[in-house]
Design a protein that fits this description.
Elements lengths: L5 E5 L3 H12 L3 E4 L6 H13 L3 E3 L15 H9 L6 E5 L2 E3 L7 E3 L5 E5 L11 H24 L7
Parallel strand pairs: 1-2, 1-3
Antiparallel strand pairs: 4-7, 5-6
Length: 159
């Protein structure tokens, strides 16, 4: 079991069940939801966990994409919880790529995996809906730059 507590938002789909089980085995809690199914309740649950001192993870492009296009949920979450968004991603030198909408990759055994962290994005508390897009674009640009850096380390333009 891990020392640091954390909770991740995982899709409510059947595929999300596998991810949720793996996260639980690694000592993380999960909340289930997506833009089309239970997303608002999942965001509210994440806010409660974060206010209780837990770290939270959310896939920025959501469970249905489009790939590498940040969805508004993480911006709303940061605003409601009063915490910054820490852009984070990883790359690896050897992997299997799946034919999913986002080209999900699974590192192969004994791969070198590198983690990258960007500059935290501080989102205004109680953000107004008309301001979400500005923050969303800032985060999307930061993640895009980080993505390019991460995969360039392994001689690739993308995974």
């Amino acid at each position: 079991m891990r020392k640091d507590s954390g909770v991740a938002m995982v899709s409510a789909s059947k595929d999300g069940e596998y991810i949720s089980r793996v996260a639980n085995k690694l000592g993380y809690s999960t909340v289930r939801g997506s833009r089309k199914k239970g997303g608002l309740q999942a965001i509210k649950s994440l806010v409660r966990h974060m206010r209780a001192g837990q770290n939270a993870a959310i896939v920025a492009d959501g469970s249905q994409g489009p790939a590498r296009v940040v969805q508004a949920g993480c911006i709303v979450l940061a605003s409601r919880a009063g915490v910054p968004v820490l852009p984070m991603l990883w790359s690896c030198n050897r992997y299997k790529r799946f034919g999913s909408w986002d080209g999900t990759v699974l590192p192969l055994p004994f791969s070198k995996i590198d983690f990258f962290y960007g500059e935290p994005l501080y989102v205004a508390p109680k953000i107004k809906s008309e301001d979400v897009e500005d923050y969303r674009l800032i985060l999307e640009n930061r993640l895009s730059d980080l993505y390019d850096e991460a995969w360039a380390l392994h001689g690739k333009k993308e995974h």
